[in-house]
């Protein structure tokens, strides 16, 4: 920030009208709540600062978890110049200006921490432009994203930056933010205990959201007025994810729905689905969860489950409420009565673990294309057998990297359609042994 003595001063009464979330912004890493694994005594970032060695990082996490604040504090505690840009509003020309300013600072002996919000919004070429300035130390890049970096960022960029995960605030962390807000405002929130718990649940793990909601409550409250949960909903115009007087929470009920489907109990599944509809839950959220159940708990035991759930979600989107709810209810009953299998879910987790453990092994050369003379000389494509030309359209070749050898991840059960898949796999295994795997 500028230290210009002639810069206009903001009157105190105006400064105090800043949004509560801005006024409560932490001034040190120690004041950051909800991210102890990063900023706490033994947190990753705390250790980096103590070691005097910061590297480029990607901050991955949901909104309102402090990614921007932590980046700014990190630059201050490490003695770095801080630059901030947003991938939504910046282009190549803006990046060039930032890089040039960072180079000039570096010539003066000061390094720059460049914070890039929504970094996943940059295209591949724009992401590549960061690589030279990261490699030569011109900038320490800190990118923030709400999207999975593995899917949205270049492999080259990821290989030069450490991914740090920011967690949604838990109830304890949000309660701490409310206590701080009450200290700053000099008065308690005019809420009953149940209403306070509802407000925390409304925030859904977002620290900025819980402070914004608190501001709305203070603005609306008359002298000596105390809001209960029903009045709170009217004031902030947001339905609390609390579905009955027993205070069963949003996550408890979605868990109950999921487990009822998994346990093949259509009546219980419909009951929990109806409770969430009645409470005002977003039907498209429930549609997405039904799709998740189709791939996690039914899988290939009934391949139509995913098709039906997607169709139900689209039907709701097309019909709206209340007609669209029936399509989701139909999908819910279909899932609950379908044969169950988590074989693909389990196989994918095992394959993912194997991929991480074995590194970047080259596939066997016989299944690689050889578009150049050099590659043909190196043996690429040698010995490949075109399966359609083989007996039973099956060559029995090995497709795993040679250092790994054949692996088995997918083990379909004798249920539903996977009974047929099991027969096919057993048949191919028999042929593979008879013909000798290559």
TrEMBL record:
Task: List, alphabetically, the InterPro entries matched.
Answer: AAA+_ATPase, AAA_assoc_2, AAA_ATPase_RarA/MGS1/WRNIP1, ATPase_AAA_core, DNA_pol3_clamp-load_cplx_C, MgsA_C, P-loop_NTPase
Q: Does the keyword ATP-binding apply?
A: yes
Q: Which GO terms of the molecular function aspect are on file?
A: ATP binding; ATP hydrolysis activity; DNA binding; enzyme activator activity; single-stranded DNA helicase activity
**Pfam family for this entry, one:** MgsA_C
> For this chain's UniProt record, which GO biological process terms are given?
DNA synthesis involved in DNA repair; DNA-templated DNA replication
Its recorded name reads Replication-associated recombination protein A
Q: Which UniProt keywords apply?
A: ATP-binding, DNA replication, Nucleotide-binding
Where is the AAA+ ATPase domain positioned along the sequence? 53-169
Q: What does this protein do?
A: DNA-dependent ATPase that plays important roles in cellular responses to stalled DNA replication processes.
Q: Which organism is it from?
A: Rhizobium tropici
- What's the family? Belongs to the AAA ATPase family. RarA/MGS1/WRNIP1 subfamily.
